[in-house]
Every structure is written in structure tokens, then in C-alpha cells.
Amino acid sequence: MQITYWGHSCFLIENGGIKLLFDPFITPNDLAKNIDVDAIRADYILLTHGHQDHVADVERIWKKNKNATLVSNFEVVSWFQKRGIDKTHPMNHGGRKKWDWGSVKMVNAIHSSSLPDGSYGGNPAGFVIEWGGTTFYVAGDTALTLDMKLIAEEFTVDFAILPIGDNFTMGMEDALRAADFVGTKTIIGMHYDTFPYITINHEHVHALAAKAQKELKLLQIGETITL
């Protein structure tokens, strides 16, 4: 499984020839200015919620990938349908969708959600994905919540993509507790450094992770790793 980071909360995960793209916010992000957005290819575009810093490049990328399926909550999907995206799959909390390649379950997130024009964005969410023998959790923007313990009761999570930037989401301390709740030792950090409010001290968060005996991966923008 290959994981490429394109800044903020945007990841492309590829396995067995299928590509999942999460929360594309690239062109407005100065830290990702060297990324060629038009070269991105995806089979599925998954959105955790409707905020601008998670959906800014959806339409641009979809126009280059018109066979891609947009997956999000009902309200976000409906908003993008009105903007011409006609291949979609709406979900809501607790629901699971099985595709030939694997399954996606939408789980709770504690945050807010609105679309770029101020429209109601439904409830924010995370995703638990079972794919080719690997299970991972993409938390989306969220606070720490005891609902995460339900994930460990149902799944064996190999790694979790968790927000660590604090202020608008969990910080590192709560992300470490979240990793305990979902039962994983491997954290891929997201939602940090993009704005002054969420700038982190990399040395400090790595020290916290080491003390908690967790593996913390902070990818460089454009970097690809294999898990």
C-alpha cells in the first residue's frame, strides 16, 4: 500500500491499482505550491466534511478524473452534484459500503461542517477502510471522542491518519490517546503546519510519540511511503 501526502489533510492511497484520494486541498496551500494538481489521478475521492480546507480542489481534480466516484455525507455529495459532479456515493454515520476492492465505513467525528459558500455541510465524519488485508482509520477533523473505542471493538487497525495540529482539532496528546482508543501503534499525522494556528513543534511531537511507544510519521509534502 502506497501513501502519498499532498499537504494538510490530503492523501492519495494506492493499493492493487485502485487509488483513493482524501480531502484535496492543494492549490490554496502555499506549502504545496510545487504539486501538479492536474496530474493527480484517483478512482475515488473521499471527503470527511465540507470545509474549504478539505474540498478546495475537488472539482478541478474530478474534471481530470470523470470516472472517479465522490464519496462523502449526503449533504456534501448533494452540493457537488449541483456543481456537475455526477458520479457519487452518499453515506452517513454508521453506514458501510462494500466495493470489489474493499469496504468503507463512515464513523463519527466531533467537529463542524459547512461548504465553501456557507451551505450546510451535514455532519463531519471519519472513515475506516478495509482494503487488501489492511485496515486503516482516517479520522478527519475531530476532537478526541470515546466513540473511537468502538472502532477497536470492530476492527484491527493497522494505522491511523490523525489530526495533530491542535486548536481546531486534536493536538498530539489527544491523538496519542486516540491511537490507544482505536488500537494502533502507527500514526500518520495530518492537519498541521498549514496555517499559523496549527503550527507544531516537530521535535516535541516526535518525543511525545516515542514516550507513548507510538510510531509517528510526518510525511514531507509530495513524499510517498509504503506500508
From TrEMBL:
Keywords: Hydrolase. The keyword Hydrolase applies. Residues 7-191 form the Metallo-beta-lactamase domain. This is UPF0173 metal-dependent hydrolase ADICEAN_02938. Pfam families: Lactamase_B_3. GO terms for molecular function: hydrolase activity. SMART domains: Lactamase_B (SM00849). It comes from the Bacteria. Belongs to the UPF0173 family. InterPro entries: Metallo-B-lactamas, RibonucZ/Hydroxyglut_hydro, UPF0173, UPF0173_UPF0282_UlaG_hydrolase.
